[in-house]
Amino acid sequence: MSNQSQNKTTQEVSQEALELYISGKFPSQGSIVRHLLGIYPHINKELLRIALLRRVQRYKRINSHPALTTECESVGLPIENVSNYWYKGKQYSIHVKGDKQKTYEKNLS
Q1: Judging by beta carbons within 10 Å of its beta carbon (0-12, 13-18, 19+), is residue 32 exposed, middle or buried?
Q2: What is the pLDDT of residue 9?
Q3: pLDDT reported for residue 104
Q4: Which residue pairs from 54-57 have beta carbons closer than 8 angstroms and sit at least 24 positions apart in sequence?
Q5: Where exactly are the structural domains of the chain?
Q6: In sequence order, what E strands does the chain have?
Q7: DSSP helix/strand/coil, 93
Q8: Which of 11, 62, 67, 103 has its CA 20 to 30 A from that of 87?
Q9: Are the C-beta atoms of 81 and 74 separated by less than 8 Å?
Q10: Cα separations (Å) of 85 from 60, 68, 79, 95?
Q11: Which residues of the chain fall short of a pLDDT of 70?
């Protein structure tokens, strides 16, 4: 193992994990974490799992709500802290809540 790979931080490895997630080459986030732990055994598994989860959530939020992302950036709000918002149009005012659906994987924990 090279010194360069031993020196990578959890933050750097989680960015690499997000890139693997986006590539679609792995069936799950868990398989990405296991793969990267084989390359970077000094990284804490739980910290990497949580970091990847947060990066994936942010990635999905940015890509599914580009106008929200633009607005948050323009006023200096971190998009990862947005769990619900109001849409105010000419005829409707709509309150949108974050995705609260429980997944099968979450129910197993």
Answers
A1: buried
A2: 93
A3: 42
A4: 54/80, 55/14, 55/15, 55/17, 55/18, 55/21, 56/18, 56/21, 56/29
A5: 3-100
A6: 84-88, 93-97
A7: strand
A8: 103
A9: no
A10: 16, 9, 11, 6
A11: 1-5, 98-109
